[in-house]
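User: I'm putting together notes for a lab meeting next week and I want to include a structural view of one of the chains we've been expressing. I don't have a solved structure, so I'd like a prediction I can at least talk through. The sequence is below, exactly as it appears in our construct file.
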Amino acid sequence: MTTQATHTPGPWEIGSINKRDKNLWWAAVFTPKNTGKFHTPRAGEALGVDREECEGNARLIASAPELLEALRAMVARGPFMDQRATAEGLANCEALAKARHAIRQAEGEQ
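Assistant: Thanks for the context. Below is the predicted structure for the 110-residue chain, given as structure tokens.
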């Protein structure tokens, strides 16, 4: 598993919700020192996406570097987690498998 970041490191921050006209918005997420900027999909009544969803998408995008780091930390602790054939152990195995899958997706391995 790759541990080197191939993305712009965080923290990322939500810049603003921009309003092109009275019914169309998008959110901007900025990387450190404005080295990059990401926009959420446009939102608006005509597109069937409301402003709250647009803001939620921006929060999710902005949290991506921290979420990836948290998943990596969880997987690193995996050998110390209960993974026996008990309800808790099986739940831990499932959580670790989901974390590994998400990391592979974020790193472009799937």
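A couple of points you could mention at the meeting. Residues 87-106 form the longest helix (20 residues). The chain has two domains: 13-62, 66-106.

User: Perfect, that's what I needed.
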